[in-house]
Specification:
There is one protein chain. The chain has 187 residues and is mostly helical. Helices cover 63% and strands 4% of the residues. A hairpin with an 8-residue loop joins β1 and β2. α1 crosses α3 and α4 runs antiparallel to α5. The longest helix is centred in the middle third of the chain and has 31 residues.
């Protein structure tokens, strides 16, 4: 009976440990923010991270219903930070449950494996962004009247879908910066 060599886990907070467990650490941080919603004392602080801020209600005329619009401001940084954490978690889920399973079947080399992972992540993000962007274009009547895109520029008042789309886009691209470190690509 042969003994198997056990894989030792790297020391806590070492370079390798952070690379292997960054998604778990980020999910714990996101859970702490979500747990803040449960208590009245911390709910006001936690809600700033999760919800879209700066709601403005406008009434175009007396006969029509009020319209909820959103502006931008410094509290949006907290919201972008929370959705950056969500982007890291989604990145890890796509990697583990989709891309790694495909990689095991393809038997790619290390460099092709790395390129496949990066391309797979970008393809998932672009597909999701394309579908979501098209739904916004059709729902907000930008497709039927494209002059809405540049009339009144810069657009300081946005509908919820547009502002949330922008926040998610910023969060994804900010998540991509530390992800370069975590990819651990070797020459």
């Amino acid at each position: 009976m042969g003994f198997r060599k056990k894989n030792k886990s790297p020391p806590v907070l070492s370079h390798e440990f952070v690379i292997q467990n960054h998604a778990d650490m980020v999910s714990c941080l996101a859970m702490i923010i979500l747990l803040g919603l449960m208590f009245e004392v911390t709910a006001k602080f936690a809600i700033m991270f999760i919800t879209v801020q700066y709601n403005v209600t406008q009434v175009p005329d007396e006969k029509s219903e009020p319209v909820n619009l959103y502006q931008y401001g410094p509290k949006d940084v907290a919201t972008v930070f929370f959705y950056l954490l969500i982007a890291v978690i989604l990145h890890a889920l796509i990697q583990e449950y989709i891309l790694d399973k495909i990689n095991r079947r393809l038997h790619l080399s290390k460099t092709k494996h790395s390129k496949f992972n990066e391309s797979g992540q970008l393809a998932a993000f672009y597909l999701f962004s394309f579908i979501w962007g098209c739904s916004i274009l059709t729902a907000e009547e930008f497709a039927t009247n494209p002059t809405f895109l540049w009339e009144g520029y810069p657009h300081t008042n946005m509908v919820f879908q547009v502002k949330f789309f922008y926040i998610c886009q910023i969060a994804y691209w900010l998540h991509a910066l530390p992800e370069l470190y975590f990819q651990k690509v070797r020459k």
